[in-house]
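the three lines:
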Amino acid sequence: MIKFQCMSRLWVLSVLCLFLTSCGEDSETIKITFIGPLTGGVSAGGLGGRNSADLAITLRNQAPDAKYKYELVSLDDECKPNVGVQVATKAAANKAIVAGVTHYCSAVAMGTVDVYHKFGLPVIVWGAVLPDITYGNDYLEIHRVNGTMINQNTVAAEFMIAQNFSSWSVIHDTTDYGKGHFKYFERALSESGGTILGTFGVNPDQQDFTAELTKIKALNPEVIYFGGLAPTGVRIRSQMNKLGMTQVFQGTSGIVSDAFIDGVGNLSEGVLAFREGAPTEKLPGGKMFMKAYEARNFNEPAEAYGAFAFAATNLIIDVIEQVGPDRKLIRDMLNETRGHESIVGPVTFDGNGQNTIAVITKYVIQDSEWVVWEDSEYASGKRFLK
Amino acid sequence: MDLGFFAQYLINGLVQGITYALVAVGFTLFFGVLDVIKFSHGDVLMLGAFTALAVFLGLDQLASPAWLSLIIMLCIGILAMGLLGALLCKFLVLPLKESPPLNTLLITLMFGSVIREAVRLFFPNGSNPKPFPALLPEASINWGNLNLRLDSVILIITGALAIVVTHLLIQKTRIGLAIRAVAQDEETARLMGIDFKKTVLVTFALGSGLAALSGISTGLYYQEINFSMGLMLGVIGFSAAVVGGLGSIYGAIVGGLLFAFLQTLGAIWFSVPAYKDVFAFAVIIILMAWRPTGLLADRSAERV
Amino acid sequence: MATNRVVGRPFCGTRVITMPDFKTKLAILLGVALSVVVLYGFLYLEREWEIGALLVMVPLGVYFLRRTNALTYYQHAAREMPRFTWISFVLGAVVLIMLLRHDDFALLMLTTVLLYATVSLGLTIQFGFVGVVNFSAVAFFGIGAYSMAALNQHFVFLPDLLIIFFSGAISALLGALLILPILRTRGHYAALITIAFGILFRTFLEVNDVLGGPQGLKVPALEMFGWNFGNSFPSEMGGGSFYVAYAIVALVLVAIVYLITRLIESSWLGLNMDSVRLDEVASAAFGINGPRWKIAAFMLGNCFAGLAGAVYAAMYGFIAPANFNLSDSLLLVSIVLLGGIGNAVAVIPAAFLIVVLPEKFQVIQEYRLLLFGIVVILILRFRPSGLMPRGLRQYFAGRFG
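prediction for all of em together
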C-alpha cells in the first residue's frame, strides 16, 4: 500500500511537471503551415506536396544567406471540408504561424477561405483547381500558384480539335473536381465545335465501370474524356481494355502522376492529359528541384502538384525574407507579386490572387513516361494516337 | 437493345455478382456461428489481394512461369488471410462475446481501418493504385458487340466453384456438421462434445480465405488494386448477405447477383450513372420492408 | 421545478453510504474540477511528447482512482445529489469555456465535441433504450445542416433560433420515411436499412446540384438575441473568440438534450423502452406498444441529430456532401459504444476521445489514423462493454438499499 501511495504521488507530480513545462517557451523559428490530405484515398497527392514544401524549407534553412530559420507545420485535412475547417482554424488561430501553403482538394479550399480571411492568414493554394476559390471572393489573403480548370480545358479542347478529333464521351467523378472539369470542358468544346455523345457522372469510390463503358462502346466516340483523379482513371483505362475498347483516353491534371502510369502499366501508351504550369523538368530550377527531391529519399514521389507546393513555399519564404514575419505585410507583399521566377514558371497574381501566367502544358504518355507533347514522337509524326 | 451489348452487360454483371456473393458468403458464415458482423471483411479482402501481389513481385524475380505464380499466390494469399481471420477471431472477437454485439462490430471496424492504413503506409508507395499482373489467358472472342474474354469466364467459374465447395464443406463434412450445430444452438453443440472455439475459428478462417480469393480475383479481373477497394466491397457484400438472408449460402448468392443486377440496371437507366448506388440501395430498403428477414432466410416463428 | 420529483427519484437510490451533505458536495466539486483540468490539458497540449505523456498518464490516473475507490465513492456522491452534480458540471463547462476564451481552435474542438455528444445522446435513446440501430446518424445530422443552410437562404425573415428547431423537425420527419422498414426488421437487417439510407443520402446530395452539389454550400453565421455570432467579443466584455458564443449555444443544447434523455430514462417512458429492447414479445404481452416506442425513439433521436447539425453548419460556415460519409456515421456509433451503450453520461468523455484524439495525433501526420484505430481497439479489448457501462436501474428510491 505504501508503494502504491508513493506511485500515485509520483503520478500527480509528473502531471504537474507536464503542465508547467508546457507553458511558456516558444521557439524563434518562423512557422509556415502546409495543409493537404495526408491520409485517405487521395493522400498520394497530399504527401507529395507535403514532401515538396518540406524540401523548400530545408533547402532554405541550409542556405547561408537566409535571415530566418523556418519550420513547416503540416496538417492533414483528409480531403474533407469539415476536417479542413478544423485544421485551417488551428493554423490560422495560431499567431506563431505567419503564412500557409494550403489544400489539394477544391471542396476543402472552398470551405476554408472564409477561415483564412477571418483570421487574416495569408495563404497560397498549391493544388485545388476550382475557379471559385480565388474568383468566388475578394479576400486579400487567398492566392493560388496553379491555374484553374478553365484555362486547362480551353487549351485541351482547342488542342484536341486541332488533332482532328470530333466526338467525345465524358466520364467524370461527381466530386467538385470532376464535375467542374466537365462543365468547363463542355463549354470550351462547344465553342471549338466538338460534340459530346454522352456524359457519365460516376462515384469516385466505384470499382467497376464496365456498365458505363459498355454504354460508351455503343455510342462509339473517338475520344474518352475523363475528369477525375488517378485512382479512378487507372480503373477506367484498365477496364476499357477488358471490353476491347481502343479509344483515345484524354485526362485532366488529376491523372498527371506516376501513379497513373504505374497503375495502368502498358495500356498507358498514348494517354493525353493537360496540366497548368510550365513543365518542371524543362526549367533550370525544376531540374534542381527534382534532383534535390530524389536526394532526400522520400517514401512518396512528388506527384503532379509537388512542384507547385515547392514554388508556393518558396514564394512565401522570399516574401518573409523581404518584409519579415508579419501576416499583414506578407499578405500585401504577396498581392504585389509580379513575374516572380519559380520552378513552375513566372508567377503573377491578379486582383483576386490568381496566378495569371498560367501556362498549360500538354502531356502524352510515351514509353511509360509523361512527355511534353511538343517533344513526343506523336507530335513529330513517328507515332499516332490510336 | 442489341443482343451483343445485352450479353456484355450480362457477363460484366455476372463477374461482379460472383465477387459480391463470395464476400457475402463470408458475412453469412460469421453470422451463422457467432451472430456477429465482421466489418473488417472488405479490408481483409484487400489485404489478401496485396499479399498475393507481394508474393507475385517476389516470384517475378525468380522468373517462375505464370501458372505456377498464380497457384502460389492463391495458396499463400488464402492461407495468410485464413490465419489472419482466425487470429482476429481469437484475440478480438471471442473475448468480446459477452459484451453487446455492436461492440464486436466496432472493434472489427477499427481493425479494418488499421489494416487499410497499414497497407497505405507500409506497402511500398501503397497510397497509389497498384497494377495487378494479368496471369490468366487473355484470349477473347468477338461476337458482334460482345467481347467475351477467357479470363472473365475462368473467374466466373472459379467463384462459383468456390461457393459450391464451401457449401459441400458445410453440408457433407464433419467440421461442416459442427459449424451447423454451433450455428443452431451453441449450448447444445457444446453438450454434444463439439469444440466450440475450434469450430468458430475454422469458420472465420474459411470466410477470410474466401475473402482473399475474391480479392485476388478482383485484382486479376480489373488488373488494378488499391488500399481502399475493400470499403465499398465490404458494404455491398454485407448488403447482399442481408438481403439474401443472413445464415443462408443460397441467400448470399442471390443477394450478390441481385446487387450486381441492380447496379448494372441503374447504370443503364440513369443518365448520371452515379445514381446507380442510390437506386440499388433504395430498392434494397424497399425489399427489406417487404421481406424483413431477407429473401431466402428461414422464416420460422420467433422463439419466445 | 415541477419535474423535480421525476429527476430525483431514480438517481437517489444507493447502497447506503451515508455521507454528510457538505462532504458529498465537496466530492462532486472535486470531480468536476479534476475533469475540467484534464479536459483543459487535453485541449491545450500540442507537442508530440506531451500527447504521448498524456496517453500514458490518463489511463494510469484512472487506474489509481479505481484503486483508491475514489470512483465508486464519486458515483455514490453523484447519485446522492443528481441535481447538484448536473449543475456543477454545466458550471464546470462554462469555466472551461472561459478558460479557453482566447483559444479559437480549442473552442472549435470543444463545441464540435458537444455537438457530437448531442447526436450521440439521440443514438443512446435509439439503440441504448429502445434498441433501434441507426447507422445513418450523420445523414440526419446532415439533413439538419442542409436545412439550416436552405432555410437561411430562402426564408431570411425567420429568426435563427426557429430555424434550428425547424432543422430538427425536418430531420425527424425525413427519418419517418424509414419507419416502415425499420419496424418490420430487426438487428442486422435494420442496420442495413440505415446504412443504405446513409449512402443514398450522400450520393444524392453529390449528384444533385439543387443543394450546391459537390461544391458545397456556405452558411452564414448565426444571429440570435441581437448578437451576430460571427463577431468576436469586444474588449470591454473581457474579449474572447467568436466561438465562445457557439460553445455556449452548444452547451445549452447538449444540456437540454441530456436532461430530456435522463428524464426519459428515469421515468416510465424509459422503463417501457427498456422492456421493448429486452423482449418485445413479452412487453407486448404486458400491453406495451412496441412500435409506438420505436417510432418515438427513432424520431426523437433524429431530431437531436438535426438540431446539432444546424448549429454545426452555422459554426463551420460551410457544408459539403463529403462531410457526411458512412465512416462519420460509424464514428458517431463508436462514441456510443465506446462510452457504454445506453449510458447517457458516458457519451461525453467518449465524444471527447473520438473527436479530439485524432486531432491531437496531427503531430504524427500520416500515421495518425493508424494509431487512432489501435487505441480504440485496445480500449474495447480491455473494456469490452465500453468505458462506462450502463448500470442497473435503481428500483428503490431513497436510501433503502
